[in-house]
């Protein structure tokens, strides 16, 4: 048990070193939400997302505790997506002209490559253990996170296309209303866990684009703000643990507000810092593939080595996912560049 915790601890410690090595205080917020900042954020978030999906048979309390923040990480992924799309549309009049070709290639080519790796994984399991035959549907599977992004892309395209008629502010309001309604519909009418909490990150991304100067003032770091956001997050976290079985108020609203409070604390701690080194840049670049492929590694590993202890399983899963994702990213980048304009 102690060895399991020690091996698991390697993951957050190594991740912290990757994030913090070479970072420096700029004394201003010029680097906040720039390419290097978001790359580091993606690199950190994708590793935490792996931990939340560790199968129960290999789980431990340390991994589970770190993984409990994964929904905040996915919210951050959505924030960065919505913010980036709005920034791109505002900077380039030609953005919408090539929107679908660029978006679909970036989202679906890595998905297809991951699907192919799933087929290879099933074949490997079948050769060694028997069973596990893949179906054709495996090749056309689309991850739920990708589906939400595709839904938002369609809504973003339609709304942004007509912004010349009803104005920029109205367009942004329509984006926000569309995401909010989709979240509530998913919560009340379908699967409450089908990204209904995390997709609010798309709303926060739009608001970040609209009110960036005000957001910067809000998260400009000082001791008082760090203490306030920290205490507020602690109190909301305690309240969520108590009231999360409560329909809507506890399960839905409280979780969303808690996630946003944690993000505000994170932004306050980091908005004046410059991040970036080869390790975290590498993780940031392959973060999308890491998110899509970690289930493949877990499935193959648990099938071929079912008796692995928790710590070994977690460490090998993280390392194996990074290796597989690096290969998929290399191949995918080549194909995406050939498709994009």
The largest pleated sheet is described as: 2 strands, antiparallel
How far from one another are the termini?
Answer: 52 Å
Order of helices and strands: HEHHHHHHHHHHHEHHH
Mean pLDDT: 94
Features:
2 strands
Description:
The chain has 341 residues and is an all-alpha fold. The chain has one domain. The chain is built from 15 helices and two strands. Strands 1-2 form a two-stranded antiparallel sheet. α1 packs antiparallel against α2 and α1 packs parallel to α3 (61-67).
Layout of secondary structure:
Layout (H helix, E strand, L loop, with lengths): L1 H19 L3 E2 L9 H18 L8 H7 L2 H22 L7 H31 L14 H18 L1 H4 L1 H22 L10 H11 L1 H7 L4 H21 L5 H22 L2 E2 L3 H8 L1 H18 L5 H30 L2
Antiparallel strand pairs: 1-2
Helix pairs in contact: 1-2, 1-3, 1-15, 2-3, 2-4, 2-13, 2-14, 4-9, 4-12, 5-6, 5-14, 5-15, 6-8, 8-9, 11-12, 14-15
Short description:
This protein is mainly α. The protein has one domain (about 1-220, about 270-340).
